[in-house]
Amino acid sequence: MPATDGPERPGDPGPAPAARERDPSAPDAGASSVPHAGDPSVPRAGGSSAPDVGGSSAPRRIGSSVPRGRGWVVGVPGQAHPALAAAASAALEAHSAATAEHDRATLAEVVAEGADGTPTMRIDVLVENAILAALARHPVNVLTEEAGWVDNGSALTLVMDPVDGSANAAAGVPLSAFSAAVAVDGVFTEALTVWLETGRSWWAKAGTPSPLRTTGRTSLPGAAVSLLRPHPANPGAASAWWEVARRAGRVRILSTSCLEGALVAQGATDAFADAATDTHRLVDLAASVVLAEAGGGAVRDVFGRPIGLDTDLTRRWSGVVAASPELADELASVLHDAYETGRTTPAGPSTPA
């Protein structure tokens, strides 16, 4: 669905002053001189070079990071927890190999049902299996989308989505991500999200100064908001979706929750939300809890449920990731109230008036 473009945002406080001007030496993805997946000098599974998605020059470096500013780097940050770094590196290599060696139909084939009760595509299995093999050297617990809960008796748990945006990845749409959070004794302390097609990554650790800065926006009118797709058959959710679209200045649908959460933490957009459909699982939100808070933002659930470590992947949330606690609270409230109105009103509003 195309983005719903609105007017520019008067009164938007914009990013923090340090992040307001773009460094011309820090190119966006696709413009970097960092070696990419098509470069034979870059290692990947299988030992051969992988073509870029759509023929682009998407940068990729595995096992090292190149500073780019605005809170992101290219590659896996060296300061990341060893288990987190190993998982991310394995995901990058496996994604590169899978997209090089298999066609779209093969990658999109449903081969199982995941621990979360949703269909598992072949690309999900290929990447997750590679990550679990890499984590064999790191005795941590793992909560992952397909295999579910892997208990290794550790105080540390890695909550991860090996391929967020599987349909995008399988189809060749370059919008998918590896995302994971470290939980120590049940508390999220560190997170890493990696854009699989470009190698761009966002990392944060609780208590450690972070270059991440959200836009700082505190109100919804005129904001740039990413949303999950609308659900016309669900009157309450449809009402909620359109109410936010009516108030926002810009709406995007990228179909990759973890990447959208990272973009909020970076300050590229003001907010991201599930419009009361209860689509989100913990693996979709765990990293954003750490990343958004490190950048000055906040994460909420539309229905007020706490977002914390839970090994039951069938649990669902309607997550809100926003540039400030004020915006997160307002967005959650607007979605909740519009959902209740649409749900209880006969033939509730599903399109804007």
Please give the structural blueprint.
Layout: E1 4-5, E2 65-69, E3 72-75, H1 82-101, H2 104-108, E4 110-113, E5 119-121, H3 122-134, E6 141-144, E7 148-150, E8 156-164, H4 166-171, E9 177-184, E10 187-195, E11 200-205, E12 224-227, H5 235-247, E13 250-252, H6 257-266, E14 271-273, H7 282-294, E15 298-301, E16 319-322, H8 325-344
Parallel strand pairs: 6-8, 12-13, 12-14
Antiparallel strand pairs: 1-13, 2-3, 3-11, 4-5, 6-7, 8-9, 9-10, 10-11, 14-16, 15-16
Helix pairs in contact: 1-3, 5-8, 6-7
What do you see in this structure?
The structure is a single chain. The protein is 28% helix and 21% strand. It is an alpha+beta fold. The strands form three sheets. It has an eight-stranded mixed β-sheet with strand order 2-3-11-10-9-8-6-7, with helices on both faces. A six-stranded mixed β-sheet has the order 1-13-12-14-16-15, with helices on both faces. A two-stranded antiparallel ribbon has the order 4-5. A hairpin with a 4-residue loop joins strand 10 and strand 11. Residues 1-64 have low confidence and may be disordered.
In short:
By secondary structure, this protein is α+β, with helices and mostly antiparallel strands. 28% of the residues lie in helices and 21% in strands.
